[in-house]
Amino acid sequence: MVVSESKPCARQDAVWLEVFKFLSYPDVVKTSSVSVRWNALASSDFVWKSQCEFYWLLKELPVGCDNWKSAFIARYKAFHEYIDCYRYVRGAWNSLEDWLKKHCPLIFSSLKDGIAEGVIHEYERQYGLQLPKDLKLSYLIHNGQETSPSGYGLLGSHYKKGPHGPGLSTFFLLEFSELFDDSFGPAGSLVLSCSEKMTFLQLVKSAQPADAQKIVAFSSWYRLDSAYRVYEVAETFTRWFSEYVKKVVSGRFPVDNGRIMSYDSATEVRKVFYFVETSVRWSLINTCVDGISTYSLRLRMKMNDNTPSSEACKVVKAYCNLTDLTGHLRTKRLADVVVGSPVLANDAEAIFSLTVVYKSVDFMVKGAIVLQSIANSELKVKVPFAEFRITVPWKTYSDLSWRQGDSTSLLTRTTDSNDASS
């Protein structure tokens, strides 16, 4: 019902416009039917520009649109299915794209254009699935990336020992069609980064339609008797992707020659001993099978800026001790990969990487680096690094009966490169 109108007042209109600006788009549409005057106010550019900024992140009027209401309608026709998650997924991609242009241009240039929506719907029909809307929207924005053997993967790299010296293991964002390819990785997993996986296809198949958008994000899994233990990462793809982007753009991951390295600063511990500072970070790797977990450790050593040249030394030995909750002790030499100079002098640094394969998902790590003086080969110094704990919050799911040979779903692909410095 349209109510009768009193003489309009410019001041009242200004107040109503401010109110309308904060309404949701369905409420704005409803207010337009209250009266002729409210219809005019609710159709104004002032109101619909705020709607476009909130839902579609538009800052400027798109080409081909005469006003902000028509701009909203155009975006709604294209993305109405994803309106609840659009601002979060598109916003994360905007932040990531801006950061990549500046810090990792080769990764940015490798991103592919989005996939056609009809292709996604055809895959859903063919496989009898209803994939989460936020995951589908991400692929409408970028359909994976071009892969490269040089290690420029969007989802991180870690150092590894190769047959010809230091190398990289790199994770690329997969194309949508590769989600349904069973030639990548362990059965039943959907890899999101070198430390985070999702098990979408198997979980979506067993989910009720109302729960299909609430598939939980998982990381590495392994079989434990008849059950499967998985590392829960996030409640939704949006949550996982947004958090990952925040880590990247805030500098949580080191960047090595334009590559994103997967060692999160949140895992870092530091220690200063004599004239050397050490820092250690670790990353969970997606190779958990039959109760075995794999981790990559990154140890960085740096000599103080004011260290005399007479104190220059080289690394002759490195090791770490792993102790699980039962007190079982294991020693591992820390010499898999050396990046940079093994000789430490004033303001110089060296980086070591170690791959740890261990049955425990909760253990303590401590160790030391043995340095030998360049000036006096008889003089050796053992430099300990800070003790730290590796722990992963595993959960057990006994109702997931995955088998070897089941269809595998991945969001990343791994490649190995033996040239870590190119």
Key terms for this structure?
alpha+beta; elongated; 11 helices; 3 domains; disordered C terminus; SMI1/KNR4-like; Immunoglobulin-like; five-stranded antiparallel sheet; Monooxygenase; 422 residues
Write a brief caption for the model.
By secondary structure, the protein is α+β, with helices and mostly antiparallel strands. Helix content is 27%, strand content 33%. It contains 11 helices and 20 strands.
Q: Could you explain how this protein is built, in words?
A:
It is built from 11 helices and 20 strands. The chain is α+β, with helices and mostly antiparallel strands and 422 residues long. The chain has 3 domains: 72 residues, Monooxygenase (Up-down Bundle), CATH 1.20.1280; 186 residues, SMI1/KNR4-like (3-Layer(aba) Sandwich); 142 residues, Sandwich (Immunoglobulin-like). Strands 3-4-5-6-19 form a 5-stranded antiparallel sheet. It has a 5-stranded antiparallel sheet with strand order 9-10-11-16-14, with no helix packed on it. Strands 12, 13, 15, 17 and 18 form a 5-stranded antiparallel sheet that branches. The longest helix has 18 residues. The C terminus is likely disordered.
